[in-house]
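Lay summary. Proteins are chains of building blocks that fold into shapes, and those shapes determine what they do. In this project we predict the shape from the chain. Here is one chain we studied, written as its sequence of building blocks.
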Amino acid sequence: MNDHSGVFPGRGSVVPFDGGGLPSTGLRDVVAGVGPATNEGSRFSLAEVWRVLTKWWWLIASVVLVCLLAAVAASLLVAPEYRAKTVLEVNREGVQAVQMGQVDAMQIGDREFMTTQAGLLRSRALAERVARSLNIAANGDYVPQDLPRDARDRIAADMVAASIQVNPIRDSRLIELTVEHTDPQLTARIADAYADNFIQSNLERRFEATSYARNFLEQRLATIRGRLEETERQLVAYAQAQGIVTLNVDSGTGQGGRSEQSLDAASLVALNSALNEARAERIAAEQTLRQAQARASTQVIENPTVQTLTSRRAELQAEYQEKLGLFQPDYPAMQQLRARIAALDSAIAQATRSVGSSLEGEYQAAVGRERQLQAQVDRLRGAVMDLRERSIQYTILQREVDTNRALYDALLQRYKEVGVGGGVGTNVVSVIDRAQVPGAPFKPNLPFNIFVGLIAGLIIGVGSAFALEWMDDTIKTPDDVTAKLGIPALGVIPKADKNTPIQEQLADSRSQVSEAYQSVRTSLQFSTAHGVPKTLLITSTRASEGKSSTALAIAQMMASLGAKVLLVDGDLRKPTFKGPQGQSTGLSDILAGAATLEGTVHATGQEGLHLLPAGHVPPNPAELLASGRFAEVLAEAGERFDHVVVDGAPVLGLADAPLLAYPAEGTIMVIESGAIRRAAVLNAVKRLKAADARIVGAVITKFNATASGYGYGYGYGYGDDSYSYREGEKPKDQIKIEGSR
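And here is the predicted shape, written in a compact code that computers can read:
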């Protein structure tokens, strides 16, 4: 048995073995419990929802019942409460007491303004005021009278504040004031008292604001008036000391404004205006004189004497030209005409000179007047410049006087406006609907509470059911096998009656267990191209999942069809099946070379079914299975029998199952419904696949249709329960099953 290489028949491949006796294709990792990971997902459907609801119906019904009872109890135990409502209108117009200038309506956003008013209604100060106005602290029905006055007032204010609800009506200036209390009379009184005290407090705040503004303005007026008087005295004293005389003149703005101007400045303005006029007259006289000198002056041409002489000369000149055609120029008459024309020319020149002399006189007079005015302007300009240097401080004092006077006038006007506005006493709050004494309590509302309890119970119950289902990741249904593990589901074995042995249920062909295993046998016929696998390993994730019962049932079902079947107890650590009394040899002895297959196989009471026990429990089962001898035994058994069913050890924690699965043609995973978690089964499947095992499907055992009583655990604790065989007994007694593994 020390051969470290061999051919596993039925697999069609040659696998070398290393020095440790394990195949080098990852089997050593499988034995160590490691392997590739898979990412199978889960499905969600209406069928799954219905399954969860039907599974946890008792939990949902219990939670709903508890919530309904709680709702009824709360409705019966809670004291009845009454509700009264008052509607207030809050206007957004008011008077600003300290704004300078004209009194305008406040421009406050509706949302901010209504939020502010609602906050004032919820204020602690208003609650205390309402409690005092109703004298609730002195009422023993609501406040213990053995407490100090301050404590009773505080309790009364707390009660009032807790009973009020303020609800501004959207897109309006209305506020609903709702009061809830156990006393209907007090409920209406509190609502009305809240409205009245809110209006009074609003008026008081406005009056206090106006009074404060008046006092403030009076103080400021006194201060500004004293400052104005002082600055005026300083201005007059400085003007007297500097000899500054000013006149009030029109500012020229067209609005009746007046300004002050010094005497020298006013004289300078007048003289400068006269100087401009004199300069214009001098320029005009000079222009006229130049034109006269050029004989083109208008004054010369328009002079009557010059015009008469010029006209007479033109007549003589015309007459001379007329006679020049008849007479010679030296003719006496012609000479006389020329003499007369020359005389007229001399007269015209004399007249022109007279006009020029007159224009020259006017020009000289204009020049003299201009020079005189210019001298006076120059003198006054120097005086004004000197006055300006001395008026700098005067201007500063004058500006301070004007500022103080403007402040005083504005404060005085505002003081008068505040006095008028404070006397009006406009209120921005008004009551639209007064509270009515409620005729019936609004709470508790039994139908509504029952409805709420029902809805809450359904939500909590269904939520709890799905939460528990989500936390419970065990494999429970064939759908879980397909969705969570990715392997086919061969069948579902119902949970058997504990009082009826499994062999009796298998012997009864009409029992649920027998029919379920018949369905599994039918599914196996479609697992390969040639039908049921010739060598089949039955294993599970951990112990006590029903793999031994499944191995026995499948072997019996195939034998009942006339096949020659060998049931091999492959669990060399804690065997399940036992041979005839006194026969202790089996598979372990064959693997160790101490026995042969022919000498260890025993016939059973059922025709066609044979048993190969596990034999003596070896100290190193994994080494025996990894030696390669098991594949030879399995091949030899396959030649002698139609089918070989191996009851193997669990996968987790042991290396036996992957070693048994490698040479087998097919492997079936047995999963106890609701008892093993998905991660554990996935780990087992990964280890088998890493060992190149062909998993034909899974069988769900101990299935409860009501899906109750799920458990968890990975323990591999075998008991002393075993299957015993005695020749000559009936089939149901020849292989005894006292517990499923």
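What the prediction tells us: Residues 155 and 296 are 116 Å apart (CA to CA).
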